[in-house]
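Late entry, zinc ion complex.
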Amino acid sequence: MFLTLQPIGASAATAEVSERELRETIDRLVGFGTRHTLSDTKSETRGIGAARRYGAARFAEFSKSCGGCLVVEAPSSMMTSPRVPVPAEIVDVLAIQRGTSDPDRVVIISAHIDSRNSDVMDNSGDAPGANDDGSGSAAVIEAARVLSRQKFPATIVYALLSGEEQGLLGGKLLAETAKTKSWRVEAVLNNDIVGNSGGSSGTRDDRTVRVFSEGTKATETPEQAGRRRYNGGEVDSPARNLSRFIAGLEGKSGLRVEQVYRTDRFGRGGDQVPMLAAGFPSVRITERQENYDRQHQNVRTENGRKFGDTVDGVDFPYLAKVTRLNIAALAALAGAPAPPSGVIVEGAVTPDTKLSWKPVAGAKSYRVWWRPTTAATWTTSRDVPGDTTSIVLPGIDIDTWFFGVSAVSADGLSSPVVYPGPAGAFFAEPAAPTG
Ligand SMILES: [Zn+2]
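Prediction complete; structure with ligand written out below:
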């Protein structure tokens, strides 16, 4: 197929998503037998090493088609955990698509390429991991295939992580890598278990995807937490406003986005957690209906009941929709200006509210938002010209509403909304001078 390097727009990009590509990727990943983090790394046909090299080869193939637009890297670290008793080399595979005008700002799509079966320490038995997380890995690879044909102001990183099942190690390594490279990480879309539509409950749902986001920042200081507890902001972390941003794109994927105001499913985890711990706005994207007979189970049949994470449990039209949502979100985030920094709200003991922020490169205008404090999403907005960085909202008092601001490009692409102060800031900001 002839590949065009012309900008094709977010809608055209989502139309490029191929169920056949997604299926081929998962078939290949399952074909490595096991992708357990401590499995064979040398074999070309079995184990985590072969799987990682396959991922890197796919990225390299896409890069060849776009004139070298993807830089493929494999950061690694020797790590231990309760599930890695002897130090083991954890390797992530990254494809980096450098932004044209704002390359230090980074949006990331991630998934874990490692798999497991019933015994998390079994490093040799079959662990097909078709859905957990072959589905997310296929979405990452497909996003790279489709979006590498376009150019964006910000950098996009496509990340295949290892060691998730052994203690979120690949996510930790990604966080360290991002810090080492001084990336200003705007968003992490962590896709983990995104291809199954038939749940353990017996319910089938191929129309809904869940987006999980933390409410308050893992990184806030006790002093910041105190102020946030008093003035509000417990539902306005950058991850939460990233979740609202993604929900605003649901029309581009054919899916309903069910936002869940939690870091992850109850008591469970994923690679977005170490990214959040490093201060990077991150969400977990997961199917609506999980099938527990297919997760973390040896492939077997007991009394006619089938267990195991095999490819027949993946609903490819559904996975294609989830992939489209991711691609729409990556294109919208990387194409829009950065979310504003230094957002301040003032107006106590006055009838008006004043919002101010630092200028954002590439912003043609700004959009100021507010909502009742009990509303789950933003309800009202007003546009402000791009040469101003503050606004007074007459007659709208600071006490009764929550406020935010986003940056908008000349072609109308908007950043996520930023809630004022440390509770809502997307990027780490230098501490204010004291005294
Ligand atoms: Zn998983």
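Residues 316-335 form the longest helix (20 residues). Will revisit in the morning.
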